[in-house]
Amino acid sequence: xxxxxxxxxxxxxAAHGPDPERLLALSRQLTPExxxxxxxxxxxxxxxxxxxxxxxxxxxxxxxxxxxxxxxPVSGTGGGLGSLIARIFGNAPRRSQHDGAGDKVxxxxxxxxxxxxxxxxxxxYSRPGYSFQRSAVFLPTDRGPDLYEEKSGESGxxxxxxxxxxxxxxxxxxxxxxxxxYMGREQDDWAPFFLIERPGGASAVTVSPxxxxxxxxxxxxAGQAADLSFWVSEEAGETVLSMTISGVTNIDREPASLTxxxxxxxxxxxxxxxxxxxxKRMTTIGQRRGHQNLASGSHLRGVRWEGSxxxxxxxNARPWLGAQTGGYCSFPxxxxxxxQRTDGAGAKWRVQxxxxxxxxxxxxxx
Length: 366
Description:
The chain has a single domain (20-93, 105-364), classed as Sandwich (Jelly Rolls), CATH 2.60.120.1270. It is built from four helices and 23 strands. It has helices at residues 20-25, 32-35, 51-56, 82-87; strands at residues 38-42, 45-48, 57-64, 71-75, 97-98, 104-105, 121-126, 132-139, 147-148, 158-167, 170-180, 189-198, 201-207, 220-221, 224-235, 238-248, 255-263, 278-286, 299-311, 318-319, 325-331, 349-355, 358-364. Residues 332-366 are annotated as: Disordered.
């Protein structure tokens, strides 16, 4: 006699952190590659599908100073994201309105090109109505002529390459790469980060720089083209913002991927169907607010964005062309006196433009 055995269900992913049920619920719609290494940021912290990843990630929460309004870390170290935090509200209109809970939310996003006092930046942004984007982007190395960060002054120059955007009523998101050197080692690398605005502040996930927390396996080798995706989805009754990076890792030189996810407050009107979302791509040398120096001596060159696609999901994404583009911004403006190099060699920004989805950004702060 043959005994009947019940059919085994696929094994659920492990969960390490304060929100295991949320991680499991938000893993079901991921592709196998996206789900290989995944972590979810919630108001309670970060939960990952492996103990090593959970240990390697740091969570930072920011809140406005009661007098100056400047967003400052209230838990965590800040993760070196100070220049991005300073500009996270930079494109929300100054006017605001109260929602039913009594909190102020922006009535809509108007992207502006202005001095945000946090360093030079190149931005390409979409028209409203999109919820998915993907690009290949080259991550320069500081062992060659393309990248130099002047660290001796007060500006704290740090290179960032990232994507993100805003929902229909704000809720800024920055998701991508921060240049660094893990534990001061010789080999430079690019570490993932995920920064989202929340009512009353912001939260972020970064890779730990501490040796004992083993952040190095999650950092990508400099001098390569990496893939970067950002999307909005509706899952388990929540609106979820997600990023996936993939490339060759810094130490073991193996292909790898990492997905970071976060449910977002519905008041910001992020929409999985596109709605009023505005997506962006950013190349910047971040500087400390109040210590901006557009002649610091730093440079970031050869940031090549290629094959950028945009849509409402991965299945209908198409090449990012003029019809999908809301505008461009290079600060400082290459046509302005402030945008010219002091050595007479032309503009600080030089953009080799092919089309909205394919361009190479270069900035020299001299």
